[in-house]
Specification:
Blueprint lengths: L1 H35 L2 H9 L4 H22 L23 H15 L40 H16 L8 H20 L1 H11 L1 H9 L3 H8 L2 H18 L18 H25 L11
Helix pairs in contact: 1-6, 2-3, 3-6, 3-10, 5-11, 6-11, 7-8, 7-11, 9-11, 10-11
GO molecular function: chorismate mutase activity
EC number: 5.4.99.5
Subcellular location: Cytoplasm
Length: 302
């Protein structure tokens, strides 16, 4: 009897803890979305002015959000219990706590219409509920058969298994609510930036369809990748995001002459993130999009 009562009490406590964590995640996410997302990132679909320059301007604005969220996540240690199912932080479920919280967050955001926006790509698209907002529409710019490209499974793997251990210190402070909120917001920002490759690809295709169509019909991935790659542009992006890591991550003092030379995150890590993962994955999205760009279109007969 005593044992049974203890299990019941423990389960109830865990249930209440999960509810509190969910409330914290949603409240924290709402604050981040309101305060940290630049206006420039939301204006492109509203204006409908899709050019290579306007898309690049949006990508530049998204860099700010990513750097700020890197700094936010670096406040906490790894907190690996969030990501390991063996700890069974979600009783009766085979998923990790971060998976559980992420799915629940996306369900709430789907109801609020987040995924009506073609700039947003869910990590767990299965069985998302419809939006309760029925009158929100966006201009159709992407080619519908190609707009479904989704590499979030790769982003998830890279983030947790390769990048996160480089960003944060080892350890566990038990602050799982704020840590998971930071993970979710950072992953969504990275996903948004990487999947913007669909818009980049559409703009480039419309500017020079005669260059892309033969390669698309030939399914020549390497040739498409070469056509999409601009080394000088990539090097400029790497230098810019590293500088943003220095500027945004500096410790501010009232003594203007005081400089410790230390930053909240390693600025070179921001450049490494873009060089090794963000830009290559963006180009992968561009290639996958282009390979589907002619789907549903009738081939013109000469």
């Amino acid at each position: 009897m005593a044992s049974g009562g203890l299990v019941s009490s423990s389960t109830g406590t865990m249930g209440r803890s999960l509810v509190l964590i969910m409330l914290a995640v949603m409240a924290f996410s709402r604050c981040i979305i309101c305060m940290a997302t630049p206006v420039e990132e939301r204006s492109l679909l509203e204006t409908g002015e899709f050019t290579l320059d306007s898309v690049r301007q949006s990508l530049t604005g998204q860099e700010d959000t990513i750097v700020y969220r890197l700094i936010e996540r670096a406040k906490f240690p790894l907190n690996s219990r969030l990501y390991d199912q063996k700890y069974e932080l979600v009783p009766g479920s085979p998923v990790t706590l971060i998976q559980f919280l992420f799915k629940q967050t996306e369900i709430v955001q789907a109801k609020a219409g987040r995924y009506l926006n073609p700039e947003e790509t869910p990590f767990f698209p299965e069985n998302l509920p419809p939006s309760v907002i029925q009158d929100r529409t966006y201009p159709v710019f992407l080619h519908p058969p190609a707009s479904s490209v989704n590499v979030n499974n790769i982003i998830w793997d890279v983030y947790f298994n390769k990048f996160l251990p480089l960003l944060v210190k080892p350890g566990d402070d038990g602050n799982y609510a704020a840590t998971s909120a930071s993970d979710i917001e950072l992953l969504q920002a990275l996903s948004r930036r990487i999947h913007y490759g669909k818009f980049v690809a559409e703009v480039k295709y419309r500017e020079a369809p005669h260059e892309y169509e033969p390669l698309i019909r030939a399914k020549d991935r390497n040739a498409l990748m070469n056509l999409l790659t601009f080394k000088k542009q990539e090097e400029m992006v790497m230098r810019r995001v590293e500088k943003k890591g220095m500027v945004f991550g500096q410790y501010v003092s009232l003594n203007d002459t005081e400089s410790t030379g230390k930053y909240k995150i390693d600025p070179s890590l921001v450049s490494q993130l873009y060089e090794k993962w963000v830009m290559p994955l963006t180009k992968d999205v561009e290639v996958e999009y282009l390979l589907k760009r002619l789907d549903g279109e009738q081939k013109q007969v000469p």
